[in-house]
Design brief:
The chain is an alpha+beta fold. The protein folds into three domains: 2-188, Lysozyme (Orthogonal Bundle), CATH 1.10.530; 203-278, Roll (Membrane-bound Lytic Murein Transglycosylase D, Chain A), CATH 3.10.350.10; 290-342, Roll (Membrane-bound Lytic Murein Transglycosylase D, Chain A), CATH 3.10.350. The protein has twelve helices and eight strands.
Length: 356
């Protein structure tokens, strides 16, 4: 009989989760079924939440709490059928797949994704790209209460208790431990944070996250053994110890000035071993929509990283040529930044500061 009652209790909790409503029973008793369901979800997706935090500056605790709440810890209809873990509706700009269900109104349109990872990324872009959420990024990354109330004030949810529900999930599951990449959180999620990420011992394989893509394979290897890569559909090579602009120009039947032009360099700008060197013009825009400026970034490095012409990068972001963004600023890479949007983030660097 006890087993039947326990099973029934778990079933009720799953049903409650699937309705998208967080129901707390025996909140401090970590042995109850509801807690275990939520904790299992958190353990499954914590690494994904941390990666999104590092990339976009949204606290992992907030992202996980929202996902638990909005998706019923992955048990809700929207999560199961549409991979939508944040309850994001279509809105007029959405061109992807759609899923219709009753919500505030009958048969409302929700975004449908191919994977949970796509849902997590879209949630990051959703918050980063909308002016009404821009104030969130003025809060400390570790101030989960400010973020919780900020989301409600910005209109993310209609439930008046939304902040309290998020805070309850965060505190019961101690999610703030994932907001401190300075501890062992990054190792836990297998995330590399320094710029020395390498993929081998040769010069061509010393591609760093600061200089360019890390998960790339050459599209061609010349007779001389030179590896040619592609980034944003533009060909590039990795500058070697014995390279010179003249030698590269001769090797690829180019003029020397084209090497400088393709890479947005002045004649007196040095090229260092390990640098990306494009051997054809970069594109006017990138395939990615946004980029959050990280410590040590500058506009030239970012233009090389995404294979976009430096002048176009400035124009897309309505910046004066020669100026530099601040850490934490959102750069637009694919379309022109709206004139009424301004970077107001005090800096994503704060996520690496300990609160101890």
């Amino acid at each position: 009989m006890n087993e039947i009652r326990n099973w029934a209790k778990a079933a009720v909790l799953v049903f409650i989760f699937s309705s998208g409503f967080y129901f707390s029973i025996e909140a401090q008793d970590t042995s109850n079924a509801g807690f275990k369901i939520r904790e299992a979800y958190i353990q499954k997706y914590k690494a994904l939440a941390i990666r999104e935090m590092v990339e976009y500056g949204i606290p992992a605790s907030i992202k996980l709490a929202q996902a638990v709440l909005e998706s019923g810890a992955g048990n809700g209809e929207l999560a199961k059928i549409a991979n939508n873990h944040f309850g994001i509706k279509c809105h007029k700009e959405w061109t992807g797949d759609k899923f219709f269900k009753d919500d505030d109104s009958v048969k409302e349109c929700f975004r449908k994704y191919e994977s949970v990872e796509e849902s997590y990324r879209d949630h990051s872009l959703f918050l980063r790209s909308r002016e009404r959420y821009s104030n969130l990024f003025r809060f400390d990354i570790c101030d989960y209460k400010a973020w919780a109330y900020g989301l409600k004030n910005a209109g993310y949810a209609t439930n008046p208790a939304y902040p309290q529900l998020l805070i309850k999930i965060i505190e019961e599951h101690q999610l703030t431990r994932y907001d401190h990449p300075g501890s062992d959180t990054l190792q836990l999620a297998n995330i590399e944070t320094d710029s020395s990420i390498t993929r081998g011992g040769t010069a061509d394989n010393n591609l760093t996250s600061e200089r360019g893509p890390v998960d790339v394979s050459p599209v061609k290897i010349t007779k001389e053994g030179r590896k040619i890569y592609k980034n944003n559909d533009s060909k590039y090579i990795i500058y070697r110890q014995d390279d010179t602009p003249i030698r590269i120009a001769q090797e690829f039947d180019l003029y020397t000035w084209q090497i400088y032009d393709f890479n947005d360099l002045e004649l007196d700008n040095p090229i260092k071993p390990g640098d990306m060197v494009y051997i054809e013009k970069k594109k006017r825009k990138a395939s990615e929509e946004f980029y959050i400026v990280k410590p040590g970034d500058d506009m030239h490095a970012i233009s090389q990283k995404f294979g976009i012409r430096l002048q176009n990068l400035y124009e897309l972001n309505r910046m004066n040529f020669g100026t530099e963004p601040q850490q934490g600023d959102t750069l637009w890479l694919n379309k022109k930044k709206p004139a009424d949007m301004q970077n107001r983030s005090p800096g994503i660097l704060r996520i690496f500061k300990s609160k101890i």
